[in-house]
What we know:
Helix content: 40-55%
Number of strands: 5
Order of helices and strands: EHHHHHEHEHEHEH
Distance between the termini: 15 Å
Strand order of the largest sheet: 3-2-1-4-5
Oligomer: single chain
Structural class: alpha/beta
Low-confidence stretches: none
Mean pLDDT: 96
Shape: globular
Largest sheet: 5 strands, parallel
Amino acid sequence: MSQRRIRAVLLDMDGLTLDTESICYDAYLRAGRKFGFQVNERLHMDLGGRTEPEIVAELKRLFGDDKDVRRWRSYINHQKGVILRERGRAGKKPGLLELLCYLGEMGIPYALASSTERERIHELLATEYLVHAFPVIVSGDMVAHGKPDPEIFQVAAARLGVDPAETLVLEDARAGIEAARAGGFQSAFVLDDVSKRGAIGDGYPILADLPSPQDVGPLADFTPHDLEEAVAIIKQANS
Length: 239
């Protein structure tokens, strides 16, 4: 495990900062039932952290060019909004406020680096009164290449004026951890387990053997249970 100092922190949003992956997964389940395609946590992890065009391309790869995945994706995105309105808010992930308070008290710079489009980021942060909680936000529509390309983290680090080698990336998606590794960042994987929400085993099959979300942990430098445990990791690295 890395013993390098941690002088800055980059946080993903969906499923890491906010409890939006449960919304996303439920939207996939609704779409899977409506259009007849399989949905499980492996598919969800594979698509996590990618930009919108990359998600469409991956859906084509996984289900075949003959499937109307653009229509599926449009319905999924619509259902995300429906589910958010049903719930009334996104919800903060456990330990988020403790982590942000600690970083603020210690003067450790941090940024939000999310593949989601900027307008959507602000909409979701607003449901939790967190619009001004992140001094630097880099969104998916601000970069040419989405995760697992490291560009989004590199842009965020440059804006903070920090060295990737001394920057901790907190992620819940495989693509994010791979991006952090590719960019020379330290990484921590916080599993956002959606498997308990069910799966769809009938319908158009997934045409690739996708890895389990449990396989992502070994790719990361750290595997905290939640964001509060990330505080202990930072303290230990800087002691």
